[in-house]
Amino acid sequence: MSPLMPRLAIVVLAAGGSSRFNGIKQLASLTSQHSLLSHTLTIIKTVQQQADFNIPHSGVIVGANKHKIIEHITELERTDNRNPVEVVVNEQWHQGLSHSVHCAVNFAIQNQCSALMLVLADQVALTYADFLALLEAFQQNGQTCCAEYEQQLGVPAIFTQQDYSALLALKGDSGAKKILIQKQQLNTLNKVVLPYAGIDIDTKADLQLWQANKE
């Protein structure tokens, strides 16, 4: 394990109501073996287990349909007990993405982690290699690090402890992108080209298209 790597928490944001999906998107079948959420959590577990970095804690933020999703996560833990994932309930999920980000930051603080990786549950094309590239870029100088795709900045992204107050100040449906843009303007941002980060699932048509292209 790298001695220069701070304690890092990985948190998957999965609290949304998925109104455009017309169903519980997190539980939708991605493959014969995985839902969207279990696919992402399985990769995160692999990153924790195999990557040579200090990642003692991982969590998943749930909100809408929390009981069904927690039951699903519990079943995953029965079949894959590597690095147990902690469930955090965001009771204010309906007030916007910022509340899930707040939950993630508080999770990192409570577990004494000085860095936080935020991940979305529906970025289904991301691979272990993508997360490894992000971690390696972060390790270079310890600066905030994010994915770059289609000339956009976004998650997955790794934030430092110095970013926590700005993340906790987000309101409504604001995600962390504006913080990434500010850090880019200050030349304090590491960017990693991750084309697959631009692929996410918003509708059932998106899911069907992704599955068709994978076959």
In short, what is this structure?
The protein has one domain: Spore Coat Polysaccharide Biosynthesis Protein SpsA, Chain A, CATH 3.90.550.10. The chain contains seven helices and seven strands, in the order βαβαβαβαββααβα.
Write the layout of secondary structure elements.
Blueprint: E1 8-14, H1 36-50, E2 57-62, H2 66-79, E3 86-89, H3 97-110, E4 115-120, H4 128-141, E5 144-149, E6 152-160, H5 164-168, H6 177-185, E7 189-193, H7 204-214
Parallel strand pairs: 1-2, 1-4, 2-3, 5-7
Antiparallel strand pairs: 4-6, 5-6
Which key terms come to mind for this protein?
globular, Spore Coat Polysaccharide Biosynthesis Protein SpsA, Chain A, about 220 residues
Per the principal axes of the C-alpha atoms, what is the gross shape? globular
Poorly predicted residue ranges = none
The major β-sheet equals:
7 strands, mixed
The CATH architecture term is: Alpha-Beta Complex
The CATH topology turns out to be Spore Coat Polysaccharide Biosynthesis Protein SpsA, Chain A
The number of distinct structural domains comes to: 1
Q: What portion of the residues fall into strands of 2 or more residues?
A: 15-25%
Individual helix count = 7
Strand order of the largest sheet: 3-2-1-4-6-5-7
- Total strands: the figure is 7
Give the ordered list of helices and strands: EHEHEHEHEEHHEH
Helix content estimate: 25-40%
Structural class, by secondary structure, is alpha/beta
Q: How many angstroms separate the termini?
A: 37 Å
Alpha carbon gyration radius: 16 Å
CATH class: Alpha Beta
Average pLDDT score: 93
Task: State the fourth-level CATH superfamily.
Answer: Spore Coat Polysaccharide Biosynthesis Protein SpsA, Chain A
Protein name: Nucleotidyltransferase family protein
Domain MobA-like NTP transferase: 11-183
InterPro entries: MobA-like_NTP_Trfase, Nucleotide-diphossugar_trans
Pfam families: NTP_transf_3
